[in-house]
From TrEMBL:
Residues 43-374 form the Leucine-binding protein domain. The lineage of its organism: Bacteria, Pseudomonadati, Pseudomonadota, Betaproteobacteria, Burkholderiales. Transmembrane segments: none annotated. PROSITE patterns: TAT. Residues 1-32 form the signal peptide. Belongs to the leucine-binding protein family. InterPro entries: Leu-bd (IPR028081), Peripla_BP_I (IPR028082), TAT_signal (IPR006311). Pfam families: Peripla_BP_6. Keywords: Signal. This is ABC transporter substrate-binding protein.
Length: 386
């Protein structure tokens, strides 16, 4: 698993240049420009280009930019182009909120692809207040799928969907003693809640226990000691790659030989970088196809675009690419002269969309039977096995 991502400097530089382009006016009017004029649809995205989750943010943002650059470069465009304004929030919910307000004030037509549970929760409230659409958050809490958040549209499955798949996997293997290790933030608590609900939904025994760790930190000794005493057969982790790797490494040193399962938000590529050969046997939930599955049309398109860039295929980058393409399809379906209300209705109608061998449901409940979630195991040399 070679790890080469789009350079931070290149992405930040190109994003800053994008922000510097002329705005189309207030976000409340930008959807409806004069007929006959070439439209530029402005997307506002805030991601961690620096800080504890930068590897994930850069890859996700890079994949989205890859698709939009490809779309805008077509000779026969449909009469509009996309301007993707990407800014850094350092994985800070406060900064993400500040960025969201500024992006909308500066003319963004919608908010797109924010990364992080707390950030997404905060930005959803801003979008609701401003009457804006919030599209394709990465790792949002399941509460944003409630009817009260009708302007939030999800490309990825819910955390409950992932938890359900992992819990069912454990049950199939006869692993009834399950513990959760979660980061002490909104994402970790959402993951813990999702696992508890998945166990109850499948009428399985409750957790034997849980422990919290600092966000993407190697300070996991207290959690290791607490979980080791419980002797679980399987541990589900709701954490980013650094804390995940540190916990796995230190718990194994105590002699633990049970299973480790992870939500997709862990970041499979940076997890391999952090763990190396010690990643062998770790299970990770994945919500998009393998970026190496070139037989899948959307992946084939993605890999062709990758060949023109300095990126390396990754799950996070592919998810950004898919999110951007799904948005472009929603705009196409809404029509060139669509206003925001039409756009929202169009997105709400996309409940079973084939984006190239991968099905999208923008308005799922907490249980999405359409979209498949893969549980993959990683070998010591970094190969992904289903």
């Amino acid at each position: 698993m070679t790890h080469r991502t789009i350079s931070r400097r290149a992405l930040i530089t190109s994003s800053a240049a994008s922000v510097g382009l002329a705005a189309l006016g207030a976000s409340t009017t930008a959807w409806s420009q004069a007929k006959g004029a070439a439209r530029k649809i402005i997307l506002g995205q805030s991601v961690p280009l620096t800080g504890v989750a930068s590897e994930i943010g850069i890859a996700f943002a890079g994949g989205a930019k890859l698709y939009m650059d490809s779309f805008n470069g077509r000779k026969n465009n449909p009469g509009y182009t996309f301007e993707l304004r990407q800014v850094d929030d350092g994985y800070s919910p406060a900064k993400a909120s500040e960025n969201a307000k500024k992006l909308l004030a500066d003319g963004a037509d919608l908010l797109f692809g924010f990364v992080g549970t707390a950030s997404s929760d905060a930005v959803a409230a801003i979008a609701q207040k401003e009457g804006a659409i919030f599209f394709a958050p990465f790792a949002a809490s399941d509460t944003l799928r409630d009817a009260a958040h009708a302007s939030v549209f999800h490309v990825r499955p819910s955390m409950f969907d992932e938890a359900f798949k992992m819990v069912r996997h454990c049950a199939t293997l006869g692993q009834s003693r399950i513990a959760v290790v979660a980061e002490d933030d909104a994402m970790g608590r959402a993951g813990l809640d999702a696992v508890q609900k998945a166990l109850a939904d499948q009428k399985l025994p409750p957790l034997v226990g849980s422990a919290f760790v600092p966000v993407n930190s190697d300070k996991v000794d207290a959690a290791v000691a607490a979980i080791a005493k419980l002797q679980p057969q399987a541990i589900i982790q709701a954490s980013l790659f650094n804390s995940t790797a540190a916990f796995i490494r230190k718990l194994r040193k105590t002699g633990y030989g049970g299973a480790f399962l992870n939500f997709s938000v862990v970041g499979i590529d940076p997890l391999f970088t952090a763990l190396g050969k010690e990643i062998g046997g770790v299970v990770v939930s994945q919500v998009v196809p393998s970026p190496k599955s070139s037989a899948t049309p959307i992946v084939k398109e993605y890999l062709a675009a990758i060949d023109t860039s300095d990126q390396t295929p990754s799950y996070e980058s592919l998810e950004g690419f898919i999110a951007a393409k799904t948005l472009a399809e929603a705009v196409r379906r809404a029509g060139k002269g669509a206003d925001r209300a039409t756009m929202q209705r169009t997105m709400a109608s996309m409940t079973d969309f084939d984006i190239g061998g991968f099905r999208i449901n923008l308005r799922p409940g907490l249980r999405d039977s359409i979209r498949a979630i893969d549980l993959v195991t990683i070998t010591p040399d970094g190969k992904v096995v289903r």
